[in-house]
């Protein structure tokens, strides 16, 4: 979101999942936050043609696309992707976690970035998007080993 700087990340197996994940995002935005998506901006990837465009038109969403071969015209998204990737790589390297954990590292990176103040707004994206302060209760150092306490089974009498 350009105003709040709040970011959603979805892990896709293929680009064909872009529309179904966008529908999932749209439902959450409308049902949980009471907001309406008015404009979506994307590059000219094939996953945004056909059904994606049709869905946007049917739902009154303006689909803006970048100029061909000019990622700089979608600078906000490109910069966010770079920040996410750099932070994800740092987390994997620092923790010694295998590269196969990239998805978990990426989701955690996004979780953190949504909960720290943004230099432009001075507030957390979470606060601006959801209207309340984020909780840091469950924020731990990523990639460290942890023990899970499993309670003993309840006795049936």
From TrEMBL:
GO molecular function annotation: nucleic acid binding
Top-level taxon in the UniProt lineage: Eukaryota
Signal peptide region: none
InterPro entries: Integrase_cat-core, Retrotran_Ty1/copia-like, RNaseH-like_sf, RNaseH_sf
Biological-process GO terms, alphabetical: DNA integration
Residues of the Integrase catalytic domain: 1-133
PANTHER family, sorted: RNA-DIRECTED DNA POLYMERASE, TRANSPOSASE, PUTATIVE-RELATED
Full protein name: Retrovirus-related Pol polyprotein from transposon TNT 1-94
Protein's organism: Noccaea caerulescens (Alpine penny-cress)
């Amino acid at each position: 979101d350009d105003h709040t700087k709040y970011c959603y990340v979805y892990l896709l197996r293929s680009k064909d999942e872009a529309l179904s994940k966008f529908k999932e995002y749209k439902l959450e935005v409308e049902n949980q936050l009471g907001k309406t998506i008015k404009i979506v901006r994307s590059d000219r990837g094939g996953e945004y043609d056909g059904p994606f465009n049709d869905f946007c038109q049917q739902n009154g969403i303006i689909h803006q696309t970048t100029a061909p071969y000019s990622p700089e015209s979608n600078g906000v998204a490109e910069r966010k992707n770079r920040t996410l990737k750099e932070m994800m790589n740092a987390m994997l390297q620092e923790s010694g976690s295998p590269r196969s954990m990239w998805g978990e590292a990426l989701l955690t990176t996004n979780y953190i970035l949504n909960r720290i103040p943004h230099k432009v707004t001075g507030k957390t994206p979470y606060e601006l998007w959801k209207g309340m302060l984020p909780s840091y209760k469950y924020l731990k150092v990523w990639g460290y080993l942890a023990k899970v306490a499993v309670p003993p089974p309840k006795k049936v009498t």
